[in-house]
Amino acid sequence: MERLVAVHTPIVNPEEHDQLLFDDEQFSRSRLYFWMLGSLATFIDMMEESKLICERLEKHVRELYPDTSRLSEQETKALRAMEPHINSLVQAMKRATTLQERVKALRDGVSTLVYCVTV
C-alpha cells in the first residue's frame, strides 16, 4: 500500500507529491484513497483483535501454570514465541496507522482541490 501512494518519494520530490493530490475524470485517486482507508481500518482491527487474543492466551496460561517448569518444552517455546509476535503486531499496527493518517491527508487534499476547482 505504501508503494501505491509512494509516501516516501514525494517528500524529496514536490512534483510527485503534487501528482498525489490531483484526480482524473474517473476519480481514480479518490477511489484509491477510500479503498486504502477502508482496508487499513479492517487490517488494523484484525491485528488489534489478534494481539488481544494472544495477550489473553498468554495471561491465561501464566495464571494456570505460574510454575512454567511444569510445561513441556514445546509449550514453553510457544509461550516464549508469543511476545515477539505480539510486538510484531504492535509495530505493524503503528505502521498501518501512520499510513492511514498519510492517506487521509492525501484524500483531504484531493477533496479540497476538487472543491476549490469546482467553486
Provide structural commentary:
With 119 residues, the protein is mostly helical. The chain has one domain. The protein has four helices and no strands. The longest helix has 46 residues, at 73-118. It is rod-shaped, with a radius of gyration of 21 Å. The mean pLDDT is 82.
CA(first)-CA(last) distance: 32 Å
Radius of gyration: 21 Å
**What oligomeric state do the depicted chains represent?**
single chain
Major sheet attributes: none
Q: Output the structural class.
A: mainly alpha
- List the secondary-structure elements in sequence, H or E: HHHH
Short characterization:
It is built from four helices and no strands. By secondary structure, it is mainly α.
Layout of helices and strands:
Elements: H1 2-5, H2 14-19, H3 28-64, H4 73-118
Helix pairs in contact: 3-4
